[in-house]
Amino acid sequence: MKLANYDPGHFYDELFDAPGRPRPEVTPLIDRINSLSIEEIQHRQQAAQIALFKMGVTFNVYGDEQGTEKIFPFDILPRTIAAAEWQILEKGLKQRIVALNEFLADVYGDQKIIQDGVIPSEIVFSSRGFLKPCMGLKPPKGIWSHISGMDLVRDRTGEWYILEDNLRCPSGVSYVLESRRIMKSTLPLVFNRMNIQPVEEYPSYLLETLLNLAPDYIENPTVVLLTPGIYNSAYFEHSYLAQQMGVELVEGRDLVIADGYLQMRTTKGLKRVDVIYRRIDDEFIDPLAFRPDSLLGVPGLMDVYRSGRLGLANALGTGIADDKVIYAYVPEMIRYYLGEDAILSNVPTYLCWEPSQLSYVLANLDKLVVKAANESGGYGMLIGSQSTEAERAEFAEKIKAAPRNYIAQPTLCLSRVPALMGDEFEGCHVDLRPYILYGEDIYITPGGLTRVALKRGSLVVNSSQGGGYKDTWVVS
Q1: 54, CA 20 to 30 Å: which among 69, 138, 246, 259?
Q2: What is the pTM of this model?
């Protein structure tokens, strides 16, 4: 089926507002695609995927019998967002990250939001992301989450919702940067005709954000990117971003505490490190402060960080904001800290730790999506409408055994974008992850990573569950 005959059906479609009628801002794109034969489109699709693979744009899946390194499937047809709509999203994302930053400072400080009864203390203190060793921390410039990614979705009406917050180590921005480079050569005529906001500045903004964390008296700070190593699922991104910023990519074994500072081993001896962009989860970064069995971090790093002699992005302890139970309280945080209503709504959420809501969830598992509070990547989740009775019964027992660890949400009818499936275009569900840098100012990558469910009928966009991705164009 050519795009000229594409029917969005009963879904909200990002490119078409009626059968065969593209949205006004994407008409040049659709006209160009319609001018190409299906064979030419397939050739460009294949060439783009091969180019990305040769550049190393892959991800790793642990425990997969077919091998660990995987091609992240890329679809040639971009997802578009009108510039006027993007301005609203940008404003809402800035509001949310400011409120979450206030929450992190408060919950590891005076805990006023708990004392005032806005969030129950037992929910905070029982969160796996709440780290007692982080109490009293004072991150440089008062910023906790410098690099974040918020997952957004649209429903059948076209309304945007925040689906998830990612404030620890959000991944995926390298795919945004590399897919844009590929798309410029794949559809050059369209790029010349459409006013597409650039994303290429991200590495320079990222470096600027990191440099902002160094103590003010240091003229030329040394920044490193700390990776768990080559077997990590996002290792390509770690090496890519380090190369783009011109900083050293290091592992824990490359670092040591000496003379009260963090030092990097080099061929010329030890060199002081002033800022770390960590891609290691909080509990693995210092075996003396957190997990003693960790071989990934640096013993004593927490003491150097607490003393103010090291900048760390993101600050330790930010994982509590990724807890899906804490997520349900973000609109209240925005009102509490900022005195404003949330610009971007949460997906309606049922908290299984509340008895009345637990009863509703257990009685309606076939209609709901149930998520574990601290899982990601599409794991620990039940999509009720696509589950069997046995699967629902098994999940019900898990919820009843640990109600604090689960939330439930209605099954949203996610928006769709046409994707090339064989020799025709079919509508596939998508989400969106913009990337936010919080330094002296707040910078948000125009668009972000659009993940697409490439299995027919699937709502799961995660790469580990068979999803792919598209370039995202913010267009005037």
Answers
A1: 246
A2: 0.93
